[in-house]
Design a protein that fits this description.
Layout (H helix, E strand, L loop, with lengths): L2 H8 L5 H12 L3 E5 L6 H11 L4 E5 L6 H5 E3 L1 H7 L6 E3 L1 H8 L2 E5 L6 H13 L1 E4 L3 E4 L5 E6 L12 H4 L2 E5 L5 H11 L6 H14 L5 E3 L3 H13 L4 H8 L5 E2 L7 H15 L1
Parallel strand pairs: 1-8, 1-9, 2-5, 5-8
Antiparallel strand pairs: 3-4, 6-7, 10-11
């Protein structure tokens, strides 16, 4: 199994070097940290590699309210009251399940997790074992590894991973793809059959948000897909489609928050001037 085969099976556009790196990590039993902005395909790549290698995976989504007990597992409270801490009353969490099954533990947006939850991963990643009070030690079966994603630290509601945790990961960085690949992605993912001209216009609008100095976080190719679909339903009106799709997908710089209408108007005007 190689990057080309996995990309073809999963319908991945481009990303051959990233897939090659991820394959090397998983096959070597290493843990992977995928870093990149929203919408660059981090989850899709993780799923493609996992399925391409015919490995099972357990998914966890990062949340500041997530607890160590949710990640590792817990004892059934009514059962404990009646029978005490019996092994068969333990309900495995995602980490324990992945370790026991030799599966890939996929953690989406790891740097949104509380520090205490992140630290639970250290012995599992380092030694392949975790100690659970009243239960004992859970040993990782062959094949267990962690694949995690994180958005860049400047994104809202994200934090930095500890040096100790980073030391257990291999880093694969993802960036927005080039214009040709983004057009191909939109062509594959749209639902409403837009014309080539609408696809090109939608991609141009999304990409323009990443270059405007008033915008902290620009739109991903997901926005281009939405614009193309919406414009098809709006009789080719890309401007109206952009007004629907972009406000929820871009973040303006501090001090510019009230200027969304003006910013979008400028982006649409510049696109029309280029066509």
């Amino acid at each position: 199994m190689n990057a080309q085969t996995i990309a073809a099976a999963a319908g991945i556009v481009g990303r051959r070097e990233e897939l090659r790196a991820m394959l090397a990590c998983v096959q070597a039993g290493r843990n992977i940290l995928l870093e990149g902005p929203v919408g660059v395909g981090k989850t899709a790549l993780a799923r493609a590699v996992t399925e391409g290698l015919e490995r099972s995976w357990v998914r966890v989504d990062g949340d500041g309210r997530y607890t160590e007990g949710k990640l590792v597992g817990h004892f059934d409270p009514p059962g404990v009251i009646e029978h005490g801490y019996q092994p068969d009353l333990f309900v495995p969490g995602p980490l324990a399940t992945a370790m026991q099954d030799g599966a890939v533990l996929f953690i989406n947006e790891l740097n949104r997790m509380p520090e205490g939850v992140q630290n639970v991963l250290l012995p599992a990643m380092d030694e392949g074992r975790i100690a659970v009070p009243h239960l004992g030690t859970i040993e990782a079966s062959e094949g267990f590894c962690v694949v995690a994603t994180q958005n860049p630290a400047e994104f809202v509601a994200t934090g930095h991973l500890s040096e100790a945790l980073l030391d257990r990961f291999e880093l694969v960085k993802l960036f927005h793809q080039d214009v040709a690949e983004e057009r191909e992605i939109v062509s594959k993912e749209v639902r409403c059959g837009p014309s080539e001209a609408l696809i090109h216009g939608a991609v141009d609008l999304a990409r323009a948000t990443r270059e405007d100095p008033r915008i902290r976080r620009g739109a991903s190719v997901r926005a281009a897909i939405a614009i193309a679909d919406l414009a098809t339903q709006l009789d080719g009106d890309l401007d109206a489609a952009a007004d629907l799709a972009l406000p929820t997908r871009v973040e303006l710089l501090d001090g510019e928050e009230g200027n969304m209408i003006e910013v979008l108007a400028d982006l649409k005007k510049k696109r029309r001037a280029r066509t």
